[in-house]
């Protein structure tokens, strides 16, 4: 489990003072830029610690002499872990919010858009939205297999084509000697002050760098703010969505015959680990179904479910047929 400690620091004066006192001209520049931006941005100043995320909510400069800055220190897990831990708890609330938004959009004959959603929220929301009458929903993440997508909702007569709410950037630099991970790119981008939900997928491009998906209104900001990833100098250029270069994950699929569709049975066959080991992993919270940790061995699976086991990877439940003997023939797709 993720442990976080939150420290509130009363900053004596405004952000630029803080930036100067930290001896970081880049922070000063970014803090100033951020003042000019809408409140869709909050300042996430990534300090020199890779594992430390400091977020400084920016107030109106004249409101008071002392800003309050909140330093969230993720003791475990880094940026990805921090974001994920927070998201799990709020995902039900998020889905409800999206449904309300859909109803409102449909009745007012408007088209409304969400920010980028995480895969579990996206999946859950689309399933529920499909059942609503008078609501059409379109999910877009820049390319067909995108994990993080924005949903547009509206009345079927208003929402007739894909809204133009997704942009793509190519981040290039010399990564030949200094390979950077997904987390490095994510950290560098959030470090400019962009909120996580304004950012879609990050597609690594090996030595060339990465391509990212983002909301169009922050393209110019990111192009002028992002100059380094790790310690590699980078430059950003806007690219058409069609240029996103995504290689589908390598998979291997196979069939197994199981007496039940319980997660312990199916996943032990899928990951080739003993059932008792799997039960053990479930009790430690290391097994997730559709990105949510499961608490019971008895959880049953259905076609389309994604099972992930920490350290082992992911698999998807494919077609399920019943056999004459009352068992289940299950197709499993393992991501390599
Ligand atoms: C980046 O930092 C690493 C050590 O942290 C160093 O080995 C490498 O040479 C540096 N690369 C560049 C391009 O400065
Ligand atoms: C899971 O199964 C094991 C062994 O079959 C059992 O001891 C344990 O209580 C079960 N746990 C839950 C949460 O059902
Ligand atoms: C399920 O049945 C269909 C039709 O008979 C067959 O094509 C498919 O391979 C079966 N799938 C599994 C997982 O057994």
UniProtKB/TrEMBL annotation:
Q: What is the residue range of the signal peptide feature? A: 1-23
- SUPFAM superfamilies from the UniProt entry: Alpha-L RNA-binding motif
A Pfam family found in this protein is YlmH_RBD
Xref: InterPro entries = Nucleotide-bd_a/b_plait_sf (IPR012677), PSII_S4 (IPR017506), RqcP2_RBD (IPR040591), S4_RNA-bd (IPR002942), S4_RNA-bd_sf (IPR036986)
Which species? Quillaja saponaria (Soap bark tree)
What name has this protein been given in UniProt?
RNA-binding S4 domain-containing protein
- MF GO annotations: RNA binding
Print the keywords alphabetically.
Answer: RNA-binding, Signal
SMART domains assigned: S4
**What PROSITE patterns is this protein classified in?**
S4 (PS50889)
Name all RNA-binding S4 domain ranges.
261-323
- The keyword Signal appears for this protein: yes
């Amino acid at each position: 489990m993720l442990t976080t400690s939150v420290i509130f620091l009363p900053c004596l004066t405004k952000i630029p003072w803080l930036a100067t006192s930290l001896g970081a001209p880049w922070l000063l520049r970014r803090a100033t830029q951020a003042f000019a931006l809408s409140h869709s941005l909050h300042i996430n100043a990534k300090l020199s610690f890779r594992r430390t995320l400091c977020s400084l909510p920016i107030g109106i400069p004249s409101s008071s002499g002392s800003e309050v800055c909140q330093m969230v220190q993720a003791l475990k897990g880094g940026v990805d872990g921090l974001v994920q831990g927070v998201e799990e708890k709020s995902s039900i609330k998020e889905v409800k919010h999206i449904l309300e938004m859909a109803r409102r959009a449909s009745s007012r004959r408007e088209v409304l858009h969400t920010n980028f959603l995480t895969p579990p929220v996206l999946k859950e929301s689309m399933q529920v939205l499909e059942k609503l009458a008078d609501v059409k929903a379109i999910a877009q993440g820049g390319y067909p297999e995108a994990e993080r997508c924005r949903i547009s909702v509206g009345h079927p007569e208003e929402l007739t084509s894909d809204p133009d709410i997704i942009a793509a950037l190519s981040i290039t630099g010399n990564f030949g000697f200094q390979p950077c991970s997904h987390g490095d790119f994510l950290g560098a981008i959030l470090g400019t002050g962009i909120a996580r939900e304004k950012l879609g997928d990050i597609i690594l491009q090996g030595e060339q760098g990465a391509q990212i998906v983002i909301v169009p209104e922050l393209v110019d900001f990111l192009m002028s703010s992002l100059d380094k990833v790790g310690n590699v100098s980078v430059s950003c250029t806007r690219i058409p969505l069609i240029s996103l270069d995504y290689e589908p994950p390598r998979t291997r699929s196979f069939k197994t015959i199981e007496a039940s569709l319980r997660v312990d049975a199916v996943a032990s066959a899928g990951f080739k680990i003993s059932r008792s080991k799997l039960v053990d992993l479930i009790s430690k919270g290391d097994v997730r179904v559709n990105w949510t940790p499961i608490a019971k061995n008895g959880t049953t699976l259905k076609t389309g479910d994604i099972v992930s086991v920490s350290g082992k990877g992911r698999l998807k439940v494919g077609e399920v047929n019943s056999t004459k003997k009352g068992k289940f023939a299950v197709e499993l797709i393992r991501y390599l």
